[in-house]
Amino acid sequence: MEYIFSLEFIYLIASVTYILGLKMLGHPETARKGNLIAAAGMTLAIIGTIFLYQGEVASIIYILIGIAILIGTVIGWMVAKKVGMTKMPELVSLFNGMGGASAALIGLIEFHHYIGDQLSILTIIAGMIIGSISFSGSMIAWAKLNGTMNKPIRLPKYNMLNNVFLIAILGFGVYMVISGSSSVLFLYLLFFAALAYGVLFVLPIGGADMPVVISLLNSFTGLAAAFGGFLYGNMVMLTGGILVGSAGTILTLAMCKAMNRPLSNVIFGAFGEGSAAVASEGSKIQGNIKEASPSDVAILMNYSNKVIIVPGYGLAVAQAQHIIHELEQLLESKGIDVKYAIHPVAGRMPGHMNVLLAETNVDYDKLVEMEDVNPEFKSTDVVFVVGANDVVNPAAHNDPSSPIYGMPILDVENAKHIIVNKRSMKPGYAGIENELFYNQKTSMLFGDAKAALTKLVSELKNM
Amino acid sequence: MTEFIDFISNNLQMIYIVILMIFVGVEIIGHVPAVLHTPLMSGANAIHGVVIIGAILVMLGAEQDNILALSLGFVAVLLGTLNVVGGFVVTDRMLEMFKKKK
Known about the structure:
The complex is a heterodimer of chains A (463) and B (102).
Chain A: H1 7-25, H2 31-51, H3 59-82, H4 88-110, H5 118-145, H6 158-179, H7 184-202, H8 210-232, H9 235-258, H10 263-267, H11 270-280, H12 294-302, E1 306-311, H13 313-317, H14 321-333, E2 337-342, H15 352-359, E3 367-369, H16 370-373, E4 382-386, H17 395-398, E5 417-422, E6 442-446, H18 449-461
Parallel strand pairs in A: 1-2, 1-4, 2-3, 4-5, 5-6
Chain B: H1 2-10, H2 12-29, H3 37-47, H4 51-61, H5 67-96
Helix pairs in contact in B: 3-5, 4-5
């Protein structure tokens, strides 16, 4: 009976809930329950750790822990409940950074308790370096996603300098482990160097690649937590951390695969350089742009049989997801078949568009993934591209010099008419010109997505 | 070399866990539809909040008069809580929207 209430047993249950939770998160029907199961396991592990601790602890420490958890719960809960759906990716990045910082702080505090114990110092220093990189990197990713820091920053030989810096940090870490140094000054030096590296690591990566970066940093934090588990011989930290580290890595690779680019290309940023070169050469594409008014588009749609909407991040920025749902319902009421074509990396995160459209109660079955929707464009009368750009850029098929060459795209050019809603002719997030806009079949509906769609809907209502 | 073998035999249980967990993580993610990538990332993000256990252990093990350790530990517990609570609540909000309409 005693065994049932032992901490080890609680940790075992918690570890199983994490595995089960992640597994269930992979299926639409069970996802929500899976998340709750993992949350319950986590709560159990936290309560168990506090109340089943073996050893003398002053009551003031219990009070401090209680206060910290209380403040964290209230703030975390409120922020998570209040923030808008379009801000989700930033928030994930922010929370990820918090976990990384927590791991780094553990290393800072525990360092001098373990001097002389080489293996422990190794795990402490490794956990601290990874946690710090994850923290500062996540903060930069957060700033980039909320638009505070938009442009990729790039200096000559940036990658090389960055790599040299990383090697220096790792070398210094190894030196501290081997020499058995007890210098707290060195420890803080390493801490700040790792923080600086996190910033330098994410800084040159373009905003379009932030989902991949967040996913990668997510698995970093998992790894940092696992090092903590190793240090304390704590099984739940070890299982949880390694599980996230490995699952996060696979998820990162899955995202890269969706963009058809190797991870190294994302991180060491041939992308940024390539697109900068394209942009500086100026637009090579010549041709005429056809502009359409909302009433032109309304007429065109009114006499169609099948319309496919291609949503992109521009839709989210303009908060136009509700009005697009209205447009969809209006067209459906006129007997027109309407679907949404979802590119795996549309928006700022894979699945971002689904989350956004689900929020407005768009029917789950109307969201069609790329492989399934591509053959349908041939039989489509109007494709309506709203705030998307790179995911419909034909350069991915026919321009080997383009940085996105080889990326699977939505083949919208097969449709009879293409309407593109954009605010201006500015290139998309990747900074690449899009020849689709110069296509004979394409008409541009300029303006903010919400304003343009509102006009379009009212025109359609009058028909 | 002996050090390496010592290391393996002293930490055999943990090494087993690490290796098995790597495979479990890979297997679990195998065939997740792209639709669920964001919630999955967010859910995994909440789970690595398990680092809070370490932060709590730091505080429980700290000397009562070690102000630096206690204040850093306090911040670590607070940040860890943010990661856990915020992570799970955000994931739940995302998934709430996936419920099928009939």
